[in-house]
Amino acid sequence: MRCHWEKLGVLGPIYILAGEGLSDVAIADKLRLNEDVVRGCTSWLLRSLGCHTRAELVLYASSAQQGTWTVRAA
To answer: Within its chain, how far is the Cα of 34 from the centroid?
Structure first.
């Protein structure tokens, strides 16, 4: 089942831009979205990927873009 953010079509673009190190405000400006939508999506990404900080999300997303996916222990 797809999540709310994926249904809106914003999950992928936000994930990619987060991997580039952009802030929620910068992502919102670039995608012409409400900041609350971006914050909600990045919060969902943090929880879903098991990241504890925004820096972890950036590292996770940037490594995924380079094709070096990692598996997190549960």
So the answer is: 15
Which pTM value belongs to this model?
Answer: 0.74
| Type of residue found at 1 | M
- Size (the chain), residues: 74
Lookup: tokens for 70:
């990692």
Distance in Å from the first CA to the final CA of the chain: 21
- Per-residue tokens: 4: 């709310």
Place of tokens 């400006």: 29
DSSP state of 70: -
Which amino acid type is present at position 9? G
**For residue 2, what pLDDT band results from cuts at 50, 70 and 90?**
low
Radius of gyration, CA atoms only, the chain: 12
